[in-house]
Amino acid sequence: MNVNIVGRKVTLKDNFKERVNKKLGKFERIFSEEANVTVTVTVEKNRQVVEVTIRDNGMLYRAESSASEMNDALDSVVDILGGQIRKNKAKLSKRLRADSIDQYFAPAGETESEATEEEYKVVRTKRFPVKPQTVDEAILEMNLIGHQFYMFRNGDTNEINVVYRRNDGTYGLLEPDGE
Hints:
It contains five helices and eight strands; from the N terminus they run βαβββαααβαβββ. By secondary structure, it is of the alpha/beta class. 17% of the residues are buried.
């Protein structure tokens, strides 16, 4: 795994970087050697946010946690990632190294009942016309209907895009990559 550690508004010490590599080392058996891991640490007032993003085989794994200490936030974010993988291990085994997932979670004393595969159930399908709009128009319409996200056709690129409201109150835009 290729680990890239970024500090925003903070200078990271070597012992924290070593701790990151040690914590993420648990996932080396699960992900391929080409996996790219980005760890971003941001200091905001009296909280520290640690975000881990793992890109491997076209899949994206992401978790974020904040705490008063960056080591606590790191521990929490590693636990969140482990939980995401554990919860979806049956589905992920097709993309990841299945035997490695079993080895990773076996020591934790997990019972088979906890690992039962959860079925994804679509309870509603909604169809609507997708009209060309600017990003600002799409955000305005999303806010008017009170949703957290909104799909639209970008008038500039003619591609389907999604705008969404982030946890911090800002907005995000999802665009197709073309790969």
